[in-house]
C-alpha cells in the first residue's frame, strides 16, 4: 500500500512538473512572439516615420559615368546629415535608399521597381539622361515624383505630370555654348560627342543655334566605351573650334589627343572641364567652358558648402556634388510645415518658388518642370575657372 501510494505520488509529481513546464514553455513562446511582433512593428513604424528618398544613380560603370553618380550621392549624404541634425523634414528623419543603375536604362528601371515594391518612397532622384528617360514612365505609372539630376535630354519632362529636372536642359547649355562660340568668331565647329541621349541632344540644339547665323557644324559621334579619338580628329585643321561633349574620362582623353595633334583652333566644353581634377591638367589650359557659379571664390555660400564637403569626404567639391546637395536642401525647404505626400511634393514643385541655393538664386515659375540653375561662360587659366563677362 505504501509502495502504491509512493508510486501514485511520484506519478502525480511528474504530471504536475510536466504541466508546469508546459506553462513556462507557453509563456516563453508568447513572450517570443510578442517580442518579434514588437520588433516588426517598431521597424515598420520607424520606416513609416521616415521621409524616404529613392535614389537611382550610377555608382558603377565600365565607362566613366559612375564618377558623376558618386559625387551626386556624396552631396546628397552631406545634405541629409545636415537636414537630420536640424530635426529632419517636419520631424521626419530623411532615409536615403540608394540603388545603382550601373548607367544602364534597363538596370535603372529594374532598380526603380525594386525600390517601389519594398519601400514606396515619397520621392525619387535619378541621374543621367538615358536612365532618367527609362524611369520616367514608371514615375508616371506609380504617380511618384521623380527629380532628375545631371540629365539634359530635352524630352525628359515633356508631357509628364510627375517628372522634374534639376539641371540645365540641352537647349539651355547649347544656347550658352553657341553664344560663346559666336563671340569668339567660330564659323566652322566640330562637335566630338558621345552618341547617346546626352550627346545627341546637345548636338541637335547647337546645330540649330549655328544655323541661325549660317555657321557650320561637323559632328563626330563616339561610343561610350571609346577612348581613342585620333581618327575623329585627323585632318581637322579646317575647323576653327572643337566642342567636346562626353563624360569626364572621354573629355580628358580627347583633350590629350587634341593637344598631341597640335590643333590650333579654340576648344570648348559644356561643364566637365571645370571639374577640379580635369581643369588642373595641362591639356585643359585655355579651354572655354559654360559652368555654374560655384567655382567663383567670391561666392560665399558655395564656399561654405565646399569646405564642409571637403572636410567630410577628403576630396574637392564640384558641381555634380553640389547638385545632389542642393536637390535635397530644396526639397526640405519646400516641404517645411507642409503635409507630406507624393501628390503634395509634386504640387509644391510645380507651384513655382524662389530658392537661394549653392548655384545662386533660383526662380521657378508655376507649371515649370525644368528647374535650371544659371550657367556662365568661363575659361580655364592656371588650373582655375576664370568667369568671362
Verbal overview:
There is one protein chain. The chain is of the alpha/beta class and about 400 residues long. The protein has three domains: about 1-35; about 50-170 and about 295-375, Response regulator (Rossmann fold); about 170-290 and about 375-385, Rossmann fold. The protein has helices at about 1-50, 65-85, 105-120, 130-140, 170-185, 195-210, 230-235, 250-260, 275-280, 300-315, 320-335, 340-350, and strands at about 50-55, 95-100, 125, 145-150, 165, 190-195, 215-220, 240-245, 265-270, 290, 355, 360-365, 370, 375-380, 385. Helix 2 packs parallel to helix 11 (about 320-335) and helix 3 (about 105-120) runs parallel beside helix 4 (about 130-140).
For this entry, give a set of tags.
389 residues, alpha/beta, Rossmann fold, seven-stranded mixed β-sheet, six-stranded parallel β-sheet, 48% helix, disordered N terminus
Outline the fold blueprint.
Elements: H1 2-48, E1 51-57, H2 66-85, E2 94-100, H3 105-118, E3 123-127, H4 129-142, E4 146-149, E5 163-166, H5 170-183, E6 188-194, H6 197-212, E7 216-222, H7 230-233, E8 241-245, H8 248-260, E9 266-269, H9 276-279, E10 288-291, H10 300-313, H11 319-335, H12 342-351, E11 353-357, E12 360-364, E13 370-371, E14 376-381, E15 384-387
Parallel strand pairs: 1-2, 1-3, 3-4, 4-5, 5-13, 6-7, 6-8, 8-9, 9-10
Antiparallel strand pairs: 10-14, 11-12, 14-15
Helix pairs in contact: 2-11, 3-4, 5-6
Amino acid at each position: 500500500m505504501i509502495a502504491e501510494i509512493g508510486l501514485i505520488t511520484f506519478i502525480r509529481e511528474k504530471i504536475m512538473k510536466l504541466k508546469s513546464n508546459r506553462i513556462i514553455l507557453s509563456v516563453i513562446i508568447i513572450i517570443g512572439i510578442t517580442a518579434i511582433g514588437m520588433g516588426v512593428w517598431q521597424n515598420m513604424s520607424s520606416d513609416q516615420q521616415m521621409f524616404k528618398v529613392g535614389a537611382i544613380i550610377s555608382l558603377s560603370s565600365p565607362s566613366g559615368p559612375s564618377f558623376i553618380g558618386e559625387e551626386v550621392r556624396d552631396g546628397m549624404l552631406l545634405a541629409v546629415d545636415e537636414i537630420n541634425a536640424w530635426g529632419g523634414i517636419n520631424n521626419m528623419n530623411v532615409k536615403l535608399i540608394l540603388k545603382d543603375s550601373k548607367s544602364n536604362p534597363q538596370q535603372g528601371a529594374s532598380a526603380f521597381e525594386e525600390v517601389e515594391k519594398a519601400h514606396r518612397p515619397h520621392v525619387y532622384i535619378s541621374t543621367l539622361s538615358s536612365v532618367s528617360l527609362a524611369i520616367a514612365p514608371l514615375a508616371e505609372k506609380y504617380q511618384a515624383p521623380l527629380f532628375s539630376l545631371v540629365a539634359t535630354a530635352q524630352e525628359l519632362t515633356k508631357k509628364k505630370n510627375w517628372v522634374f529636372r534639376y539641371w540645365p536642359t540641352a537647349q539651355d547649355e547649347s544656347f550658352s555654348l553657341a553664344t560663346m562660340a559666336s563671340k569668339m568668331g567660330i564659323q566652322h565647329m566640330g562637335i566630338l560627342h558621345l552618341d547617346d541621349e546626352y550627346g545627341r541632344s546637345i548636338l541637335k540644339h547647337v546645330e540649330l543655334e549655328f544655323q541661325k547665323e549660317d555657321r557650320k557644324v561637323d559632328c563626330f559621334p563616339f561610343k561610350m566605351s571609346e577612348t581613342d579619338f585620333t581618327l575623329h580628329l585627323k585632318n581637322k585643321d579646317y575647323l576653327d573650334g572643337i566642342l567636346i561633349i562626353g563624360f569626364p574620362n572621354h573629355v580628358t582623353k580627347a583633350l590629350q589627343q587634341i593637344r598631341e595633334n597640335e590643333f590650333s583652333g579654340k576648344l570648348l566644353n559644356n561643364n566637365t572641364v571645370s571639374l577640379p581634377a580635369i581643369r588642373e591638367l595641362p591639356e585643359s589650359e585655355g579651354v572655354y567652358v559654360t559652368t555654374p557659379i560655384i567655382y567663383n571664390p567670391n561666392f560665399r555660400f558655395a564656399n561654405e558648402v565646399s569646405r564642409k564637403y571637403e572636410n567630410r569626404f577628403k576630396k574637392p567639391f564640384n558641381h555634380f556634388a553640389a547638385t545632389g546637395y542642393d536637390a535635397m536642401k530644396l526639397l526640405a525647404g519646400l516641404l517645411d510645415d507642409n503635409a507630406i505626400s507624393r501628390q503634395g511634393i509634386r504640387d509644391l514643385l510645380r507651384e513655382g518658388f524662389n530658392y537661394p541655393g549653392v548655384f545662386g538664386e533660383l526662380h521657378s515659375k508655376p507649371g515649370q518642370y525644368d528647374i535650371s540653375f544659371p550657367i556662365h561662360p568661363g575659361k580655364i587659366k592656371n588650373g582655375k575657372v576664370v568667369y568671362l563677362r
